[in-house]
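Hi again,

Forgot to attach this to my earlier email, sorry! This is the prediction with zinc ion bound. I've pasted everything inline since the attachment limit keeps bouncing my files.
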Amino acid sequence: MGEILLPMLGLKIDVDTYWGMKNGVPSLLQTLKELNLKGTFFLSIGPDNSGRAALQLIKNPLFLKKMMRTNAPALYGWKTAFYGTLLPAPMIALSFPKIVNDIITAGHEVQFHAWDHRRWQDELSSKSEKWIREWFGKGFAGFEKLTGNKPTAFGAPSWLIDDRVLTIIKEDKFEYLSCTRAKAPFIHEIAETLEIPSDLPCFEEIDAQKGISIIADLIKDGGTHVLPVHAEVEGGIFQNQFRELLKKTINMGIEVVQLNKIKEKLDIQTLARRKYKMELLPGRHSPCAV
Ligand SMILES: [Zn+2]
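Structure tokens for the complex follow:
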């Protein structure tokens, strides 16, 4: 991120599923505690409709390819593949108030990721403005119930946004958004809000064996970067690689931080004001905002 020349690595930790909240978050909390590090947890609050992806799988050969390559059932557990179809959709963060409290007590930043992650990801473009407003309404109510506060940041599911979303959230006056995979922070047109993007690839998009050295190479430039982390992945199958990467980062003299620390260091006046674009990034099956 060209605008700030401080060696910092922000951890943007998304929780997308019931399995990730239940198993991935405690694992990540343990790793972060061991290494005395803080990150930002973006929580999915409402129903886990992951099983709806299994329906997608039948309809979309590209999706099937991705599922096979990333071995999604091994990543997320078999039950997850049926939530919202053969099995009822369980609530994600709302099922685990104690774990939410553990995140806060450990001193991490907690922000809003989703009400229904899966439906946003699959159906946003076909949904009405009313549906989007209700999605935020339910999500904020659940977030407040769990944390006692309104979120001060939003990270869109799958880095998917549109102009209607930015118009709606302008009213919420978020301190920042983390909705894109852009290479540097900017000010969103329409929402008129700071964007702190995830500029690095996530583990599941790159070769797992080479992941540590690929990311270490990208962060050694002395600048500030944000790593997108998923509770289901770095808190599951890749937990050892994630710990190794964090140790390596510390040894490189890079400060690991939560995203609101990056916000404090940014000189807002110098940032570009622009509109997001949608782009298909390597290793992903649908376009992301950049
Ligand atoms: Zn997500």
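Residues 14, 16, 113, 117, 157 surround zinc ion (CB under 6 Å). The first helix runs from residue 18 to 34.

That should be everything now.

G.
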